[in-house]
Amino acid sequence: MFHQIKRLGTETAIYGISTILGRFLNFLLVPFYTNVLAPGDYGIVAYLYSLIAFVNVFYSYGMESAYFKYSSTLEIGTAKQNFSTPFISLFGTSVIFSIILVILASPIARMINVPIDYESILLYTVGILAFDAIAIIPFAALRMEHKAKLFATIKFLNIVVNVGMNLILLLVFKMGVIGVFISGLAASVLTVVMLLPTIFRYLTKEFNLPLWKALMNFGLPYIPSGLAAMAIQVIDRPILRALTDDATVGIYQANYRLGIFMMLIVSMYDYAWRPFYFSTAKETNAKEIFARVLTYLVLFMSAIFLVLTFFIGDIAKISILGRHVIGPSYWSGLNIVPIVLLGYVFLGISTNLSAGIFIEKKTKFSPLVTGVGAVVNVVANLLLIPPFGMLGAAWATFIAYFIMTVTMYIVVQRIYPVSYEFSRLFKVAGSAAVVIMLYYFIPVEALSGSATIVFLWKIFLIVLFLMLMYGMKFFRAGEISVIKRLWKNKEDKGISDISESI
């Protein structure tokens, strides 16, 4: 068991390192935007990208997951056909969709209330959508081949180009919001160029019609579920814009982006998790492995949640060359960050639980799960934003992720039951809850007035979290042995000798 989990951890680390580096560069755009763009302009960027997320669902129509399923088993067709068929399908539909959007660009701009000066943004957006769709299957092929390093390198370079173009177009050419979207298009085009060797290696003229029908049957349910997923992730921006203004959306977006640290963990885990559970499902102890992975995932995310909750304010206020990570005019939104982080924790749990749906080819349940979350999110936003503003939007997102996770568990247990380690999960949750309550209900900062004492108090709480779990016997003897051996940098053979005791 430990061997499979170790492989998952290794690939997650590779995806993670590159993702963290890349997203960190991308995250640098937040202080950049808050110093170069007015809050209203930044709000427009956030609003339009939230709409792009919805349209992207139609451009991809679940073909990535369908490719993972059929290329991993080769139930229909050859390996090259399993690449070429979904690739050709996405290429053709991307061209068709893009032509339609270009023709209707002006009326669409008026319909979504884009200022007339920014109508050209829609043309760049069409290009971004098309090239991103073309890159889906080549990227998926790299993941199926476990070529995490090449995958990570291309993703990283995509972000480097995007950030570099933003700096040039906004600082040198003063292109403002339009420069943001031109930068995105340039990065997407370069990504496809870098993927050409992978495309040419697999591409064949053979279009397998039975395979395409199977792919469509597997992937099409992703459209409603994908729309629902996007509603959970980004519907708060359009609603917040409708009920407030662009400046509020800009402040909300800047602080929401601080949740990137937890989102990175969930994203890099998802990159490795999907190919992992398809290949591991064949193992006799697959369900036991999945349960153990969830326990470790929740432990790790809980520790990160506590660290970020305690120190996110300090991180946001770091001053570099006279500029803060988040400009002072945006600090009013810092109180949404812990809520956003906790929402991502439940998203990570839901990602783990979802394995059973895909293993059993029950993708028809995906729209149900994400649909419930989407409805909850929309209703909660409409109810909570008027009285609480951006704080209400953050709580609405958390509630949606929580309800979606509960629904996912109920559904998956009926089709692919897994005996999760609830006693251990509750120990993690209980320890984290105790520490959080101490942090919020004991006002050390107000009582002491000393930054040093406050810092030490936060460190103590993190140590207390680990001590509570140790006292409740969360860690098993085999796990402690593994930790000790890893700490002493032993050979893999030494680790495998004790893996059976975990």
Q: How would you sum up this structure, described in words?
A:
With 502 residues, the chain is mainly alpha-helical. It folds into 2 domains: 1-35 and 252-420, no CATH class; 62-219, no CATH class. It is built from 25 helices and 2 strands. It has a two-stranded antiparallel sheet with strand order 1-2. The longest helix is centred in the middle third of the chain and has 31 residues, at 286-316. The chain is globular, with a radius of gyration of 23 Å. Residues 493-502 have low confidence and may be disordered.
Distance between the termini: 8 Å
Mean pLDDT score, rounded?
Answer: 87
The fraction of residues assigned to DSSP E strands is: under 5%
User: Approximately how much helix is present in the residues?
Assistant: over 70%
Number of strands: 2
Order of helices and strands: HHHHHHHHHHHHHHHHEEHHHHHHHHH
- What's the arrangement of strands in the largest beta sheet? 1-2
Number of domains: 2
Largest sheet: 2 strands, antiparallel
Which blocks of ≥5 consecutive residues have pLDDT under 50?
493-502
Q: In angstroms, what is the radius of gyration?
A: 23 Å
Choose one word for the global shape. Answer: globular
Structural class: mainly alpha
Q: What is the count of DSSP helices, taking H or I runs of 4+ residues?
A: 25
